[in-house]
């Protein structure tokens, strides 16, 4: 009976270590997903270019179309975020949430994850 507190302490420590490993990996995967969505949405935004390279015209970025395309991509991915356009560059910030599977049972709430991506329209 005198070993019960020791084994209980060992079990609690093991659960906490497993939670850190599993939930740390889960948050990292959520960050990677948010980064992929941000970069892809930025590329979708730069695809909203107008112009005709056959005639030698330069491509111009349509700001409303770029914002709409990037926002549509973010929404389709099931995330939220913001889009800004500066010249020929589209910046996208995506916000997602990771809910811990193991550490959530001891009160660690949803963890916010944010990633930023950008893309540049090259008009050469």
Order of helices and strands: HEEHEEE
Global geometry: rod-shaped
The figure for the number of domains is: 1
* Average pLDDT, all residues: 89
How many E-type strands? 5
Strand arrangement across the biggest beta sheet = 3-4-5
Structural class: alpha+beta
Please report the number of helical segments. 2
Please give the largest β-sheet.
3 strands, antiparallel
Proportion of residues in extended strands: 25-35%
Uncertain parts: none
Helix content: 40-55%
Span between N and C termini?
78 Å
What would your notes on this structure say?
The chain is of the alpha+beta class. It has one domain (4-120). The protein is built from 2 helices and 5 strands. It has helices spanning 4-46, 63-76; strands spanning 49-50, 60-61, 80-86, 89-98, 111-120. A 3-stranded antiparallel sheet has the order 3-4-5. Strands 1-2 form a two-stranded antiparallel ribbon. Strand 3 and strand 4 form a beta hairpin. The longest helix is centred in the first third of the chain and has 43 residues, at 4-46. The radius of gyration is 22 Å and the shape is rod-shaped. The chain starts with a helix and ends with a strand. 24% of the residues are buried. The mean pLDDT is 89. It comes from Microbacterium rhizomatis. This is DUF3060 domain-containing protein.
Short summary of the structure?
The chain is α+β, with helices and mostly antiparallel strands and 124 residues long. The protein is built from 2 helices and 5 strands.
């Amino acid at each position: 009976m005198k070993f019960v507190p020791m084994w209980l302490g060992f079990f609690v420590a093991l659960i906490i270590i497993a939670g850190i490993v599993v939930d740390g990996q889960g948050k990292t995967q959520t960050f990677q997903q948010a980064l992929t969505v941000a970069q892809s949405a930025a590329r979708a935004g730069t695809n909203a270019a107008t112009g005709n390279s056959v005639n030698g015209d330069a491509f111009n970025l349509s700001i409303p179309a770029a914002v709409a395309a990037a926002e549509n991509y973010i929404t389709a991915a099931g995330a939220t975020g913001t889009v800004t356009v500066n010249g020929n560059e589209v910046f996208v910030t995506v916000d997602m949430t990771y809910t811990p599977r193991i550490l959530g049972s001891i009160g660690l709430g949803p963890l916010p994850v944010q990633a930023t991506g950008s893309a540049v329209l090259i008009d050469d």
